[in-house]
Amino acid sequence: MFVILKDRILGRDSVARLIDGLEHLCAVLRAIQDGHGPTAQELAEAPILNNWSIEIQSTPSLRIMADSADDLVLPKDEPLREMPDLWIFAEQQGWVRGLAGWYRLGSPAET
Questions:
Q1: Kind plus residue range of the DSSP H or E element containing 86
Q2: Is 98:85 a contact under the CB 8 Å cutoff?
């Protein structure tokens, strides 16, 4: 999201990065529509999400309970708690796609 204030877009660099990410995501979605998911190499390089659960809100969101040292950590050293930009959830194939990239599904949260 970005804010426009009196004909001025705030965070122009952030908006440019979001546009680039969405354009790349569109290409990924088209490839998946054509039957081409992530490559073996992309999945091998993708972080593993452990202790995850899917929650359906107004939009689907993947919730990750970060409870061990090997959990995914974001660049700002903050553990990933929720993936609100979840676009594809392929549980049987063992992967998800967010705006930032591919993720492998590890062990789900115990219910």
A1: strand 86-90
A2: yes
Measured CA angle at 84 (ends 51, 29), to 5 deg = 100
Most distant pair of Cα atoms in the chain: their distance: 49
- Alpha carbon distance 22, 98 (integer Å): 10
**H-only helix segments in the chain:** 12-33, 40-45
- Separation of alpha carbons 27 and 99, rounded Å: 12
Handedness of CA 62, 67, 71, 75 (dihedral sign): positive
- pTM for this structure? 0.62
Which H or E run contains 5? strand 4-5
Model pLDDT for residues 59-110, shown as the tens digit of each residue? 655 666 544 434 454 444 555 566 667 788 888 898 888 888 888 888 887 7
- One-letter amino acid identity for 45? E
Distance between CA atoms of 75 and 101, rounded to whole angstroms?
14
3-state DSSP call for residue 22?
Answer: helix
